[in-house]
């Protein structure tokens, strides 16, 4: 296949993978190319930016199971547009004959292509001065290609992703858009902005925005839940009480049970990431008892205290 203008020829060749490549192979190839061709690293190389858009467009098609299957069957081209039926419109000189065999559409003996279809399907197939219209509704014509898609990468703070806070992005034309993040958003999520790509004969392409959820100093994401290590004092662990806990939505008070040990996990429901279907994950708070250093009173207390609940004593150690 060849590449014409901004039209994507073969998405497999664009990503450098075989037709039987797995989704993992496709993702690996895309990440490698996207890292090399990212516009931020190639500000003085417009060809790299164009190539980056093509790579993203190829990845978008091949990770869509339905589009990939249709492309493999020859039903659509690399841009996702319907392919010309029976090979028409591609400069080929041979076609089909009912009952098998072939005939030459270009030879003088067969006459004009419209005459052939007029004979096969009736006079309504050809109207006026050539081409196909009327009963065929534009049969055999490929729609004009849209402009190329444009790829963007958007860094989103961890807490904003958890809250689904709107994110502002500036497009190539200088216009800004406030994006509404989808439920279930994660690092690598792609959002399509219809008609925000480059202009082409068939209209504007799309903008493909890849989300990069930024890591956080204290939070760790586990699926739709968030994990947090929370230091508490010895007295809070022994006596229990209310402690202040940060969450993506703001600080809340959490009750620590009496006799809590390091590693105990408490759950704050609905303080995690929004799920794809409905609902929201939780915040898992792991208590970490923070002992004071060189506290003479604590040292003397420990020397004279016999821990009847020592787990090692129960194990015979």
Would you give an account of this structure?
By secondary structure, the protein is an alpha+beta fold. The protein contains nine helices and 13 strands. It has a four-stranded mixed β-sheet with strand order 8-9-13-12. The protein has a three-stranded mixed β-sheet with strand order 1-7-4. A hairpin with a 6-residue loop joins strand 10 and strand 11. Helix 2 runs antiparallel to helix 3. The N terminus is likely disordered.
Low-confidence stretches: 1-6, 86-138
What average pLDDT do the residues reach?
80
Number of helices: 9
Decide which structural class fits the backbone. alpha+beta
Principal-axis shape equals elongated
Order of helices and strands: HHHHHEHEEEEEEEEHEEEEHH
Helix content: 10-25%
Output the strand order for the largest sheet: 8-9-13-12
Beta-strand proportion: 15-25%
Largest sheet: 4 strands, mixed
What is the CA-based Rg, rounded? 32 Å
The N- and C-terminal alpha carbons lie at a distance of: 74 Å
Number of strands: 13
Set out the fold topology.
Elements: H1 11-15, H2 23-37, H3 46-62, H4 65-72, H5 113-121, E1 150-156, H6 158-163, E2 167-170, E3 176-179, E4 190-193, E5 199-200, E6 203-204, E7 207-213, E8 219-222, E9 225-233, H7 234-239, E10 241-245, E11 252-256, E12 265-268, E13 283-290, H8 296-303, H9 311-314
Parallel strand pairs: 1-7, 9-13
Antiparallel strand pairs: 2-3, 4-7, 5-6, 8-9, 10-11, 12-13
Helix pairs in contact: 2-3
């Amino acid at each position: 296949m060849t590449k014409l203008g901004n039209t994507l020829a073969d998405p497999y060749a664009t990503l450098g993978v075989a037709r039987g490549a797995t989704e993992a192979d496709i993702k690996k190839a895309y990440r490698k190319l996207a890292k090399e061709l990212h516009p931020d690293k190639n500000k003085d190389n417009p060809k790299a930016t164009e190539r980056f858009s093509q790579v993203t467009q190829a990845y978008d098609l091949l990770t869509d199971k339905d589009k990939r299957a249709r492309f493999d069957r020859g039903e659509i081209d690399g841009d996702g547009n319907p392919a010309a039926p029976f090979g028409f419109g591609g400069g080929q000189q041979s076609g089909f004959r009912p009952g098998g065999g072939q005939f030459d559409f270009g030879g003088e003996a067969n006459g004009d292509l419209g005459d052939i279809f007029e004979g096969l399907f009736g006079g309504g197939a050809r109207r006026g001065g050539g081409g196909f219209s009327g009963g065929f509704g534009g049969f055999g014509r490929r729609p004009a290609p849209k402009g190329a898609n444009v790829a963007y990468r958007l860094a989103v703070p961890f807490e904003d992703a958890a809250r689904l806070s709107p994110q502002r992005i500036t497009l190539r034309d200088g216009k800004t858009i406030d994006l509404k993040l989808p439920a279930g958003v994660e690092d690598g999520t792609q959002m399509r902005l219809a008609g925000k790509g480059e202009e082409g004969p068939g209209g504007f392409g799309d903008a493909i925005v890849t989300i990069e959820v930024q890591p956080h100093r204290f939070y760790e994401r586990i699926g739709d839940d968030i994990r947090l290590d929370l230091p508490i004092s010895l007295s809070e662990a022994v006596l229990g009480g209310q402690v202040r806990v940060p969450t993506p939505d703001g600080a809340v008070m959490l009750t620590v049970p009496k006799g809590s040990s390091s590693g105990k996990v408490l759950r704050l429901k609905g303080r995690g990431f929004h799920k794809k279907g409905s609902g929201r994950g939780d915040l898992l708070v792991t208590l970490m008892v923070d002992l004071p250093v060189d506290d003479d009173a604590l040292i003397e207390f420990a020397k004279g205290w016999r821990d009847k609940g020592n787990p090692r004593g129960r194990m015979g150690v």
